[in-house]
Every structure is written in C-alpha cells, then in structure tokens.
Specification:
Structural class: mainly alpha
Helix content: 55-70%
Distance between the termini: 56 Å
CATH topology: Serine Threonine Protein Phosphatase 5, Tetratricopeptide repeat
Shape: flat
C-alpha cells in the first residue's frame, strides 16, 4: 500500500486511478463503455458505437444534472442510459443515488412548507 501512495505522490499511475479510455485526461471513463459484440462477431460496429455514444451522453448528462441538484432530470437520464446498457452497475448506482436525493429534497420542501404555514 505504501508503494501505491509513494507512486501517487510522484504523479505516477496507481491501481486506484480511475480507468480512462485513451490518454486524454478528459476522456470518458472506460467503465462507461458498452463493448457489445455484434451479431456477426465484430466487436465494434456502427450501431454499437452509436449506442455506446448515446449511453455516454445520457450518463454524463445525468451526472451533470445530479451535480446541479436537478435530481428529476438526473433520474430521467440514468433511466435512459440503463435502457441502452441495463447491466451498467455504475448507472444503476447513480440512479439509486438520484432517486434517494430526490426523495430527501422533496421531504425537505414539504417540511419547509409545513413550517411556513
């Protein structure tokens, strides 16, 4: 464990770094990739690439909505991303978090409204 910490301090890649596609630090994390094999056995075809791009777009839009506190929109985006990739554990997790935060915000608003009346 101390080797990983030393490597991190030196700016070297560690096992704890998030996986990224390509070398671009702003690229989409590879955990979002669908990698759906096509019917003809080709790992990437145009339809799968379009599906993957749409999944990434919806997922990232959900992340942005969540971080802005728009939990209803985040829920919609994560649900859409899960229609494209139902096995994405990350999208499932984010959907649960957005639903939880939406419930909390709704209850806070109700309590605030009750106190003001």
């Amino acid at each position: 464990m101390t080797d990983e910490i030393d490597n991190w301090k030196k700016g070297k890649k560690t096992p704890f770094d998030p996986p990224r596609s390509g070398g671009d630090p702003f690229s989409v994390p590879s955990v979002l990739k669908l990698n759906i094999p096509s019917m003809d056995g080709e790992p990437d075809n145009e339809e799968n690439e379009l599906k993957e791009l749409e999944f990434e777009r919806m997922f990232l839009e959900g992340e942005k909505s969540y971080s802005c506190g728009d939990y209803k929109r985040a829920i919609e985006c994560f649900e859409e991303s899960l229609k494209l990739n139902p096995r994405s554990r990350l999208a499932q997790k984010k959907l649960i978090e957005a639903i939880s935060m939406n419930i909390i915000e709704t209850k806070k608003k109700k309590i605030s409204n009750d106190e003001n009346t």
